[in-house]
Amino acid sequence: KDRGAAVGMRREVDASGRAIVRQVKKGVRDFSFGRVLGEGSYSTVYLATDRQTLKEYAIKVLEKRHIIKEKKIKYVNIEKNTLNRLTEHPGIVRLYYTFQDETSLYYVLDLCNGGELLGVLKKAGTFDVECARFYGAQILDSIDYMHSRGVIHRDLKPENVLLDDQMHVKITDFGTAKLLRDPREPWEPDGADRGVPESGKRQGQEDGRAASFVGTAEYVSPELLTHKSACKASDLWAFGCIIYQLLAGRPPFKAGSEYLTFQKIVNLEYEFPPGFPPSSRDLVERCLVLDPARRLTIEHIKNHEFFQGQQFGKTLWRTKAPRLRPFV
Ligand SMILES: C[C@@H](Nc1nc2c(c3cc(-c4cn[nH]c4)ccc13)C(=O)N=C/C2=C\CC1CC1)C(C)(C)C
C-alpha cells in the first residue's frame, strides 16, 4: 500500500438512507492552488490550501511527460521512497499525500514560509556565531536523523535548507538521495534499494545513476569527484561548506567554472577571510578533510567547541530561532 497515499473521510448516505463514511483519496480538486513558490528542473512547487481544512501546504507538481522524456522516473521514485522513510523529524520537510491525474504527479508537503536559507543569508550578508550555531545544529540534527534512517542526502546546500514560519530548518529536495538498505524494510527487488557499503568504499555502478550523478559543484565532496561514490561522510563535507558559508557569506570553494571549482575541492584550495571566528575555523577545517574516513563524525561535531552548550534533539526544536543580525 502506498503509505504516501492519503485517505480523506467523506460522510455520505447510502441507498437505504444510512449515513456512511467513505474513505476517499485526496485529489487536485481538494486543494485551491496559489502562487509558485519555487521551480526545480523537473518540478514546480505551489502554495496550496486544503479546501476542507483550510490548512496551507506546498504542493510539488511533476509533469509525467517531462519525467518520462528526461528518463527521471528513478529520481521520482527515490524522492518518494526517501520522503516516505523520513516521516518523523521536525527538520525534514514532510510528505502528507500523493496523488496524480492524467498529466501530473502531486506531492502535498509542509509549507516552508521562510523560504530558502540561502535567501535569508544573502539578505543578512553573514550570520554571527550564535545564528550559525543554531542553524548548524538544526541541519546537523536533521542529517543525523537521515543517516539513522539509511538516507544520504548527497546534495545538501543552503538552497535545499528551507525555513518554516518559526524560522526553523526544513531540509528538502531528496531526488538525488541515496537509500542504504534499511534492515527494517523488506528488500525491494525493483532496484529502489541501493545497498551502499557503510565504509563508502567504491560502489558498483549497478544502477548506472551513481556514476553519473554529481551534486551542486560548490558542495560536492572530493570522494564523489575522485571515486564517483558518496558515503554518509559526504553529507558532512557539505555541512562544513555550509557552516563556512553562513559565517563568511560565500562558499569555501567557488571558481569561474565547475571544472575550476572541482579542482579547488580535490586540492583543498580554500582560505578563511580575516576575522573568521577561530573555533568555527577549527570545526570547518576538521570537516573539510579530503579522506572521508578522517572527517569528523556527527558525534564529534556535536562535541566540538563550536557547539559548546548547544542542545540537540527535542530541546533544540523548541528553542526560538535567534534574531538574524542585519548586515552591518
Ligand atoms: C528546493 C525547492 N524549493 C522549494 N521547495 C519547497 C518549498 C519552497 C518554499 C518556498 C517559499 C515559501 N515562501 N517563500 C518561498 C521557496 C522554495 C521552496 C516548500 O514550502 N515546501 C516544500 C518544498 C519542496 C519539497 C520537495 C522535496 C519534495 C525547489 C527549488 C526544488 C522547487
How would you explain this protein's 3D organization?
There is one protein chain. This protein has helices at 64-69, 73-85, 117-124, 129-148, 209-212, 222-226, 232-248, 258-266, 278-287, 298-302, 314-318; strands at 8-13, 19-24, 31-39, 44-50, 56-63, 95-100, 104-109, 115-116, 151-152, 161-163, 169-171, 178-179. A five-stranded antiparallel beta sheet has the order 3-4-5-7-6. The chain has 328 residues and is α+β, with helices and mostly antiparallel strands. The longest helix has 20 residues, at 129-148. The ligand C[C@@H](Nc1nc2c(c3cc(-c4cn[nH]c4)ccc13)C(=O)N=C/C2=C\CC1CC1)C(C)(C)C binds at residues 37-40, 43, 45, 58, 60, 93, 107, 109-113, 115-116, 160, 162, 172-174. Residues 37-40, 43, 45, 58, 60, 93, 107, 109-113, 115-116, 160, 162, 172-174 line the site of the ligand C[C@@H](Nc1nc2c(c3cc(-c4cn[nH]c4)ccc13)C(=O)N=C/C2=C\CC1CC1)C(C)(C)C.
State the helical fraction: 25-40%
Strand arrangement in the largest pleated sheet: 3-4-5-7-6
Structural class, from secondary structure content?
alpha+beta
Low-confidence segments, ≥5 residues, pLDDT <50?
1-6, 189-211
Q: Roughly what fraction of the amino acids lie in strands?
A: 15-25%
Q: What is the topological layout?
A:
Elements: E1 8-13, E2 19-24, E3 31-39, E4 44-50, E5 56-63, H1 64-69, H2 73-85, E6 95-100, E7 104-109, E8 115-116, H3 117-124, H4 129-148, E9 151-152, E10 161-163, E11 169-171, E12 178-179, H5 209-212, H6 222-226, H7 232-248, H8 258-266, H9 278-287, H10 298-302, H11 314-318
Antiparallel strand pairs: 1-2, 3-4, 4-5, 5-7, 6-7, 8-10, 9-12, 10-11
The site of the ligand C[C@@H](Nc1nc2c(c3cc(-c4cn[nH]c4)ccc13)C(=O)N=C/C2=C\CC1CC1)C(C)(C)C has 22 residues, from strand 3, strand 5, strand 7 and strand 8.
